[in-house]
Amino acid sequence: MRPAVPVALLSALTLALSSLASAQDAGRPAEAPPAVAPTTPAPPGSAEAPAPKPRPGQASGYGWSDRPTKGRVAVPRGRRARVGGPVATFPGFVALPEGGSRVFVQLTGAVQVEEHRVPGAVTYVLKGARVDRWNNTNPLVTVHFNTPVREARLVPRGADLHFVLDLRSSVQPTWKVTPGKDGAASLEVDFPSGNYLPAEVAPPAPAAPPASAAPPASAAPPASAAAPAAADVPKR
After folding, report:
1. CA angle, residues 110, 113, 117, in degrees to nearest 5
2. Which of 103, 104, 80 is nearest to 156 (CA)?
3. What is the three-class DSSP state of 87?
4. Among residues 79, 140, 83, 82, which one has the least CA distance to residue 106?
5. Which class does domain 92-191 fall in?
6. How far out from the chain centre does Cα 180 lie?
């Protein structure tokens, strides 16, 4: 016969195992239940569509990101106009009554002017001037007028503004700053009269038609025989 195990020993062993398991469970951190995203029930009779994937550079909803994507070329922004100083408008041109010509630029205030000449161009430095619209830097083309100026344009250079004149003839211009109303001023550059337009190519003279042979002189008709003289009739 097998020896009988005391009931008290079995009860003590069971109680010890239960206490050990409870102590291990108490030492573990409590796990949070998994988060479940709320879902909108699909209308009856329709298949549930998969959620669209977000595009690169776009956040959820109406979010937007301006970070350049791969293969995209960033467009450079326009240059900002400098703030402060007299403002120069676009260049102008006028033909003078005595045959000369003048180019000018108007300013909102008086400035100091420096002249620099090089072969084929003359530059007037407007100290401290600026342009408030980048469109005013477009060239003024005068090549079709009787003037030695080919074109005139405003070029910003650091803290100054250059008034550059491209010439097609070697001449000596004269300049002056004329005061205007409300403190305004105008730089005027005058050029002497002359013939500055390119010579036009004369069209070739039309070829003379080939000389035709003179028609042969018509032959005189042959002389006819003289009619016989009438006989004298004797008078009765």
Report:
1. 155
2. 80
3. strand
4. 140
5. mainly beta
6. 33
Give the domain ranges of the chain: 92-191
**pLDDT (tens digit, 9 = 90+) per residue, 107-159?**
999 999 999 999 999 999 999 999 999 999 999 999 999 999 999 999 999 99
The answer to whether the CB of 172 falls within 8 A of the CB of 158 is no
d(CA 68, CA 49): 31
Beta strand segments in the chain, E: 92-95, 101-107, 113-118, 121-126, 140-141, 149-157, 160-167, 174-179, 185-191
The tokens for 176 are: 């002056």
Are the CB atoms for 88 and 161 separated by under 8 Å? Answer: yes
Q: pLDDT band for position 198 (50/70/90)?
A: confident
Angle at CA 88, nearest 5°, toward 84 and 92? 175
Q: What are phi and psi of 123, to 5 degrees?
A: -125, 135
The answer to whether 176 touches 188, Cβ cutoff 8 Å, is yes
- Flag whether the pTM goes above 0.90: no
Cβ 144 vs Cβ 196: under 8 Å: no
Residue 70 is given by DSSP the state T
- Whole-angstrom distance, CA of residue 21 vs CA of residue 30: 16
Whole-number Å distance between alpha carbons of 195 and 86: 36
Coil, strand or helix: which one is 178? strand
> CA 224, CA 226: separation in Å to the nearest integer?
6
